[in-house]
Design brief:
With about 170 residues, this protein is mostly helical. The protein has eight helices and no strands. The chain has one domain.
């Protein structure tokens, strides 16, 4: 048996012993935390449902293909291949959608191709921005996001360009 498999049981034992020493009702704390977790999930459900519907409509309508064609000249200036643009479009919006596009790129071009390497770096270094913002701001009840989304999208764009430059200059 290795140490990694003992971490979770030892953590549980530590929490129970700590609660016993401090005279804290650990089970009651657990139940209250679980209730708060369920309340958070219920409060986020409308936001997440709207996000899933919007993503489905965006991909099913062909808007991703249209955006790819429109953005292709701009993206080619920074060295991002046209085949990777749908991944750039979907990764801030949909984790499952971007994973599907990523898998398609890997299956079509191979993991060692320029497209495959750029897609791999992008998939490993970006976040589903809109989902994260919806969850984090929605969980604390913030309705106005201010500069959060523009700043997060700028971060995504920087990661797309950095991925392309890193692959082209260091890994080809």
């Amino acid at each position: 048996m290795n140490f990694a498999s003992l971490i979770l049981p030892l953590t549980v034992v530590f929490i129970v012993v700590f609660g016993f020493v401090k005279k804290i009702d650990v089970f009651d704390c657990f139940i209250n935390g679980a209730k708060q977790g369920i309340e958070t999930v219920v409060s986020l459900l409308p936001v997440l449902t709207g996000l899933v519907v919007a993503i489905s409509m965006f991909t099913a309508s062909g808007a991703v293909n249209l955006c790819t064609k429109l953005l292709s000249p701009l993206f080619s200036l920074v060295g991002i291949p046209e085949e990777v643009i749908p991944l750039c479009i979907l990764s801030p919006v949909s984790g499952s959608g971007s994973l599907t596009v990523f898998e398609s790129i890997i299956n079509t071009f191979g993991p060692d191709s320029v497209e495959g390497r750029i897609a791999s770096v992008i998939a490993g270094s970006t976040e589903t921005t809109f989902y994260a913002v919806a969850v984090y701001l929605g969980s604390v009840g913030i309705k106005k996001s201010g500069a959060v989304i523009p700043c997060a999208l700028i971060g995504d764009i920087v990661s797309f360009v950095s991925a392309s430059l890193a692959v082209k200059y260091f890994f080809t």
